[in-house]
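Final report, Chapter 2: Outcomes

The project's central promise was a pipeline that accepts a single protein chain and returns its three-dimensional structure in a standardized token representation, suitable for archiving and comparison. That pipeline is now operational. To close this chapter, we reproduce one record exactly as it appears in the project archive, with the input sequence first and the structure output second.
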Amino acid sequence: MDADVLTTRVADGIAVITLGSTRRIYFDEEMGDALTTALDGFAGDASVRVVVVTGGAPGYFIRHYSIAALIRLAESLRASGREWPENATYNGGSWTRRSRCARACQNL
């Protein structure tokens, strides 16, 4: 595994998954696949009691999702001809409600 994508280590029953590095602190398909593989591996390991997921750059967990990956996803969705429901998260659905709630809570 490319250390700029994801690294893992286990000590005393604690698995640590580090996403990215100081050179690469964005999430994309490659990192998602690597994270899924790592989590699946730890799920089957009876010696691992805890899994901690952290970012590989000081002060950051993940800065953003790869724009190129988002464009590929959007193009494949557009090509599929799929129709999206009116209550989808981009159109006033749960994401919008959670965002409003989070902003309101910040003002408390």
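Archive annotation: The first helix runs from residue 29 to 43.
This record, like all others produced under the grant, will remain available to the consortium after the project formally closes.
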